[in-house]
Structures are given as C-alpha cells and as structure tokens.
Amino acid sequence: MSHRKEELNKILERVEPEKLNKFKWTPCVSRHSIKRLYNLDAKLVYDEELVDEVGYAMYARCLQGRDETILNYSGKLLCHNCRTVHVSPANGIITCSCGYTYIFHEYRKSFQKARMPSGAATPFFNEFINKWERAKTYQDKMLAIDYVIHECHLNMISNVKRGFAGCNLIQGNKKQVSEFILELAYK
Known about the structure:
By secondary structure, the protein is mainly alpha-helical. The chain has helices spanning 3-13, 31-42, 48-73, 104-113, 124-134, 138-157, 166-169, 174-186; strands at 76-78, 85-87, 93-95, 101-103. The strands form two sheets. The protein has a two-stranded antiparallel ribbon with strand order 1-2. Strands 3-4 form a two-stranded antiparallel sheet. A hairpin with a 6-residue loop joins strand 1 (76-78) and strand 2 (85-87). The chain is elongated and about 65 Å long.
C-alpha cells in the first residue's frame, strides 16, 4: 500500500461515518409545481405564493450551483454543516472544526451526481439569479422563471453533447424533463 493511501486510511479511521462526505444539495424543482404555476398563469390566476415557491426553489438551486462551482474551481469546499469555507490540502482531506470531514474529490463527484447547475457551463443560470434578485412583482417573477425555462428549452433543442441543462434545474430524468419542457413550450 502506498504511503499516501496509508495516510488517508489513518485519517479516515478517526472520522465518524455519519460525518463523512455529507453533502446537502438544494433539490431540483418539482415539475408538478412548475406546471401548476403555468396553468394558473394561463388562466390569469396570479398565485403569489406559488410563483415564490417555484422561483425561490430555482433561485436557491442556481445560487448554490454557482457559488459552489466558484469554490470548486478555486480548490475550496464549503462545509455543508456549518458553512465554513476550506481550502483543499495536498492530501485532499478536509476536516472542519464542526466535526465533519470531506474528501475533496468526493465533493466534486457529489456535485456532479446531484446535477447541480453550473453557471460556468450555462451562463443563463447566472442571468436567472440576477433577474430573480431584481424581480419585485408577480409579472417580473414569472418573466424570470419563464426566461430560465426558455433557456433550458433552447439548450435542449441545440442537441448539446454534454448534459441537458433542464436536468440541472427540474426534477426528473432527461426524457421526463425534455417532454415536460416541450409540453410547456407548445401547449
């Protein structure tokens, strides 16, 4: 066994399993909620609570994706328990003062597995964040939501080779999200 592997094993022996690599990613937004919002909006029923529920869910996911992408690219990690930012050491193991431990490459894998939106790959997520932060009225909020859904639709029909952006934001697999976006676009 290599010296590096031995060092890793010694560190991990002292870690509580329930505090190792526990990442908390903002969930994808429910297709049902988005559809309900669009259906009500089409009937000129302006549900302020629902537009906020959908918009803030999208905003939270995009914001976490953007912020953690910035940290990730700079070799940093945000503790998902206490929110402390850490620089990844040479061995890639980060132990936070709150008792949680992270392996940096597992953090990166978890980010990808959770399909978090990355503003670096799809800048329209960052634009949505800006639009949502400026939105004050129901109409402004609906325009911001419609903007990001429309951009996901454009991304989908462009036949992107690496990942369809709608899956970074909306709950479901690629087929479900694609069909959902088409339904919204052409209904």
